[in-house]
Amino acid sequence: MKFLWTTINVKDMDASIAFYSDLVGLKVLNRFPAGPGKEIAFMGNGVNDETTVKLMTDAGLTSISRGGSISLGFSVNSVDEMLKNVASRNVKVQNGPFETPSFKFFTVQDPDGWNIQFFEKK
């Protein structure tokens, strides 16, 4: 069994795609209408069989419900460089950075409040 994707509901597809493209570095792999007022976009690095992020919007949703303990984690080469990138885009760091002898990470929130962790393995 292989883990394929994580689906997150978003209010503004274009704003979410910009966040995951510009800050995280993901590419839109597929974007399509999914019914009246609904749209789906899969984002990833374009590597075969890689886990992707599935963004889904529905004009009928009045609010986005999310669990406070859910986060999406992304590997980075340098947490320090990613912190500079985040600051240059005026994205607020929610937690961290935290550091141990074997890893370093911090958390931001995407446009809909989903927790996004940037993780560096040492």
Explain the overall architecture.
The protein is of the alpha/beta class and 122 residues long. The chain has a single domain, classed as Roll (2,3-Dihydroxybiphenyl 1,2-Dioxygenase, domain 1), CATH 3.10.180.10. It is built from two helices and eight strands. It has a four-stranded mixed beta sheet with strand order 1-4-3-2, with helices on one face. The chain has a four-stranded mixed beta sheet with strand order 5-8-7-6, covered by helices on one side. Strand 2 and strand 3 form a beta hairpin. The chain is globular. It starts with a strand and ends with a strand.
CATH architecture: Roll
- Stretches where pLDDT is under 50 for at least 5 consecutive residues are none
Summarize model confidence as the mean pLDDT.
91
First-to-last CA distance:
29 Å
Main beta sheet strand tally, sense and closure: 4 strands, mixed
The number of strands is 8
Q: What would the principal axes of the Cα set say about the shape?
A: globular
Strand arrangement, major sheet: 1-4-3-2
Based on secondary structure, the structural category is alpha/beta
CATH topology: the name is 2,3-Dihydroxybiphenyl 1,2-Dioxygenase, domain 1
Number of domains: 1
Order of helices and strands: EHEEEEHEEE
What is the overall number of helices?
Answer: 2
CATH superfamily: 2,3-Dihydroxybiphenyl 1,2-Dioxygenase, domain 1
The CATH class name reads: Alpha Beta
Residue share in β-strands: 35-45%
Helix content: 10-25%
Q: Give the C-alpha Rg.
A: 15 Å
